[in-house]
Predict the 3D structure of the following.
Amino acid sequence: MALAARHAVPAIYQGREFVAAGGLISYGTSLTTVYRLVGTYAGKILKGANPGDLPVEQPTRFELVVNLNTAKALGLTVPPSILARADEVIE
């Protein structure tokens, strides 16, 4: 993230944490949701389930987070269509 900022390169990250720390945009799964799923799996295994019998699950919800402060610093205008779709906009 620091390298992208130093060279004024717009970058998209996989997690909202990067945008909260000054990144431009993130699109990815919620870590909270993923950790909850891991906890559920661990609970099933600790209760005796065979890991090979558990179904493979994939995230179904993705978050779009935009940092308008970073966009402004980079001289970018984020289109209204992106802002309307964003789950969170940091101003």
Observations:
- The first strand starts at residue 12 and ends at 13.
